[in-house]
Amino acid sequence: VPAAQFFTSKEGEENGLNAVYSSKAQYLCYTQNNCNLYVTVLEWPGKEFALPLDLQSKNYKISLLGRDGTLNYKDKKESIVLDLSDIYHNDLPCNYAWTFKISGLDSKDLK
Prior knowledge:
single chain, four-stranded antiparallel β-sheet
């Protein structure tokens, strides 16, 4: 490793490598049961979340497991945009993974 790539502290000691680490991937896991689709996210998406789904059904409901009620959403071309702006950190059912349930789907959406 070239010396220029080492991080040097103010004291002149080499403490590690100069690097920038970031992740832009959003981890999604899908499963289904009966006419329900479950989407698990491993990073909380923030105030809005675009699910890359193009569903034929129009009368479905979306909820966050572990939390009462349904979520507002908008159908966009080839995605569903969830409005999560009313969910605060204290409202989250856990800290590590969150599952959205999409219920009332037609069987053609689950192929």
